[in-house]
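User: Hello, can you help with two protein structures?

Assistant: Certainly.
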Amino acid sequence: MSSLSGLSIGIYEKALPSGVSWRERLTLAAQAGFDFVEMSLDPTPERLERLAWSKAQRNDLRRAIEETGVAVKTMCLSAHRNWPLGCGDAAVREQGLALLRQALDLAADVGIRIVQLAGYDTLPDETPGDASRERYLDALRQAVVWASERAVMMGLENQEVGYVDSPTTAVHIIEQVNSPYLQLYMDVGNLIVKGLDPLPEIAAARGHLVGIHVKDARLGVPRRVPFGEGSVPFGEAFRRLKAGGFAGPVMIEMWNDDRPDAVEVCAAARRWIEARFLEAGYKAAV
């Protein structure tokens, strides 16, 4: 498990080998020193099938979590890329809402604490505007009712594209919806991708931050930048988080594309990130 006191460090499902069972995936995460794995619900059929898991399949995952000691604490619901909640097509919106309700059911059944929501309000061929954003807000107002019924937190992610482009924008949305079940799951790397100054954006997130994604990135380059080779000011960012009292889950976002040394690469990334947290003043585990 991670060597930090108080912070749980997780790894994105897509950073680990694919084509393995959840028990095997959690075992590999444990070997690499992680506390949890983030489940991906992207638009691919094999991942969306999880929404239709039987009670027995859900119980199997719960047993694997208990026996490996590695939680599935968070879920990345990126399927809304294909079914955005503010889309002008009512059928697309309804499908997006159905996916969200099913995702919250799955989260409640297997013990996932936070469902990360994508900030897509339109399809790529649509023009976003006031109408799409109001539809997106209406969908979130319905979603917080479902989330509160299931006691599952939802976290908006600031993304490199789409409506939710920064923590400042996310907090504005959160304040309009006005529910404790909708907060912010910040992606530090995406701030750099968008050319934003991370320090005031981290300050804007205070009071709403339930978790963070960490990855290295460059302006306009959101993926597959090795840690230490991008432009993310991890030291300054983590010191700002420490000053704000952040102690939520930290998820390392990587895509290892089934490389044979994926587990070793993930473990090395964990050690690198933990070192930056220690330099920022977080304490080592005793």
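That covers the first. Now for the second protein you mentioned:
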Amino acid sequence: MKGLHFASSNPPNRGKHTDSKYQVNQEIRVAEVRLVDENGKMLGIFPTREALKIANERELDLVLIAPQANPPVARIVNYGKFIFEQQKKEKQQRKQQAQQQLKEIRFKWRTDTHDFNFKVRHAREFLLEGNKVKGTVIFRGREIMHQEIGEELLNRFVEALSDISKVDQTVKSEGKRMFVILAPDKAKIQQYERQKKQQPEE
């Protein structure tokens, strides 16, 4: 949406945007704003009336982007383009959140080394795909009396995957289950993949 040129010092009322979560142009009621121009340059603190005038002279809009700041921050933008970019960012964030799933790897109270390593490999695949992993130890009957064994197993699980993950939730007990949640660590994964590429092929 483009602004309008005007001859007087009073900026025109260019309409409301009640469908927006942002205050725009005449909707801005604060007395002064910290003004950022369309190129991201900080211009300083201006009376809101003066900031509106500058935006209109540039045929652009004034949008309050940080109302909680002191003073509030307003930016000169092409409103239509600004909203489009914000919606695109939000859509991408929702897409990333939807893609990440919580995968569960279950262990028995006593898990042999072969089975443990097999399940760690599966967990590694899930983490490299961008998913969180929940490692769960299930106790049956009197096994619950020996929770320290389950905790030790989960700590081994965390250590085995520490090169590509971080602890999202520490070891916790719930009834006859004990679990830990790991999340992918992007920086560690990048380093892991670089090292993997450098390794000679067998």
